Amino acid sequence: MATKLDKTDVVIVGSGWAGSIVAAELSKNGRNVVVLERGKDQKNSDFIGVKDELRYTNRDEMMEKLSGETITSRVSTDDVALPVRLMNEVNTGTGLGGGSVHWAGSVYRWRPYDFEIRSKTIERYGEEKIPEGMTIQDWGITYDELEPYYAKWELTAGIAGEPDPLGDERSIEYPNPPMKESPAIKLFKEATEEMGLHPYQMASANMSEKYTNPDGETINQCLFCAYCTMYGCDFGAKAEPLVTVIPTAQKTGNSEFRTNALVRRVLHEDGKATGVLYVDTRTGQEFIQEADVVVLGAFTFSNNRLLLLSDIGEPYDPETRKGVIGRNFTGQFNTSFLGARGFFEDKKFNYYMGAGGLGGALSDYDADHFDHTDLNFIHGGGIELRQYGDGAIKNNFVPKDTPSWGEEFKEKSLHYAYRSLIVWYSAAVMPWWHNYLSLDPTYKDEYGDPLIRVTNKLTEQDKNIAQFGIDRCTEIMEAMGADIVEPDSLPDQFDHTYTGMHYIGGVVMGEDPETSAVNNYSQMWEMENLFVVGGSSLPHFSSHHPTPTIGALAYRAAEGVEKFLEDGGLLVEAKKETAKA
Amino acid sequence: MSEKNNKTNNAGMSRRNFLKNSGLVAGGVVGGSLFGGLITNQFSKDNKNEDTTNETPVTFEARTFFNRNEDFAVLSAATERIFPENDNGPGAIELGVPYFIDRQCAGDWGKNANDYMQGPFPVIEVTENYEENKKSVDKVTPGTVVTVPSNTPRYQTKMTRGVLFLEGIRAMEKQSQDKFDEGFAQLEAEQQDEILQLFEAGGIDVSGVDSAQFFGLLRQTVIEGVYADPVYGGNRNMDGWRMKGFPGPRMAYYDQIDAEDFIEMEPEPLRAYQGN
User: What is the pTM of this model?
Assistant: First the structure.
């Protein structure tokens, strides 16, 4: 029998950016908040002395262990799905602060085109530009409406940057100046400027200067040690929940972050959420946390799985193309970061140094900035040269005609260490009727519940946009003067690798309950006191990483929860979409 | 060497500069106390380093996974062909890679302790490219046949990595006996390469796993053993890093990130970073 705990105003599942932003805002308002985090408690001092590539990058130390639960994966709706068994095949965040703690820190807002993608595509190219089965939709919120929330998140996170020359309107300047420029970035910018493109220093959540945010939290200056992605920052120099919104929530005295608390069900009665059932992963004991409002702020896989296991919302069925939960699943897969690698005989770059958000970028081929009339795809991608700082295990890049082992490999991998650069295209990924999330019919977690199953097929759109990006990156790498330029090649099909951590959708936002699960406050159409916040609400994958958009939507969701606590009811009126895919 | 060590320690950053740049002087959010011990250690360890880095380390290397000498001999010979000694510097054996792999196999990774290892495990058939499965089998059973394209290997064996290493090594030994009438460890280098190439090309069955997948695991683990921190038993004396010009974990490159020229540093291990 599960132990019933005292009721709280709001219970939040997950302590990453999404859950912790909502927790901070509501507890600042005086609401009592309980946050349930499946992973362990952690703080920045835990990360002192963790600069260990094998343990963190190759053995995925900060990621959720899969022994009890993973995902299953298949390409087509006719295939059987197999479990993704290894830690290095699927990375999902865990622990206090969630996946945000080990993010790189690259910061891009999504584009006005994204939020009204269907209308704007039809407006410019006609309805026939959208292929049958591509399920893009307007979000029910515009860029202008979301802009203040982007600004709020950027101020909380102390983002360092300069305006993108092809960027959209901003109500604030970046709170921190751009990061320092390395010679590799300079080379990228000079070459692309010469080509008539518009490079700039990408915005970063690694601090260019020490910063104190509006909540009074201080983030330290980044030292370019190169241990960002896959690592927690021991200097507290990367904006993430442990140095920002979690302490903000905690100092109100109104919030409690309960770790080792794995939520297994959302409990509900008569169309109203009553709380959640969770298990203490240290003892195996079960607890019921009741609340007036339930917020799911976990990773995409968990948010979807919890709704499906709890029997909330209509599961999406690809046969009928009806239902919403699991619909419009996308992510950055093996067509998303293709480009060109260049090998330089007479240049050596200090590529053991770097930062997750250090790089040059350009938006000339982003979103709908260029004419797609004669192109066989929609949307675009950012072009980037990133200087994360490469570890010694990773840094083994050799020209393609080199064997992958033996004496020649050894010689060339040592020669070209620090003599190669890559420029890539972060291609956008569109949703399709056949790509979705559902419960797996075979494989179970350690408690006997079905795993979440991914069905994901690469389409012609994916391959065409990626090839376009490869071609642009190749031109750039040639202009940068590399002696050997090697364009990436297109994959044949999806490879079931989930290591980019950016998987979204399934509980998507929209204006029509037939094609969306939540409204623009992340409130479930079907259950007014249940809010589902995070990557799961994004209806397609734009041309850049999703974190700032998740942050902005979380700030808006927090406002929505507060409104709901005050007045109740649906916060947005549902609309019928006029046209459907 | 010790002089060079002193000069390049912490990439030339003084304690005062570090504190200034990181904002710790003013008592940032996390406060001086958090980094206090680390900083003190980092900036006072020069002398200590001098004392220890030139000593011949006492080694207690022993096998804790590969029980049979002959298995370990095959493994060692294979790692050396993958990363051979040459003019650039030491090869896998001198770098301790076989012991690195032995330790990895003996630990969580080799036992797949953090991986999803629940069944059922279907029969895997390798195809060249992705093929849609038209059978519409919904539930997987041990008898289900699933095709997997060769370019996207998926770990679907019930064997742990450690067991796969043993099975793979013994399959290599068998190939060697069949082909050359001699054990793998005794072969000429070119013959060893031939066996490795066979395994790399795929098509040899390793207890239900394609040899290409086993070879991929072996190759990747060798690279890890060459370049992982020496605490794991490979990259002995940091010679893997030294060959590559990798400095090991450092606190800060704030003053070097915009430097035009490549900066060579004597490597430092995690042990030094942690202040020991």
Answer: 0.93
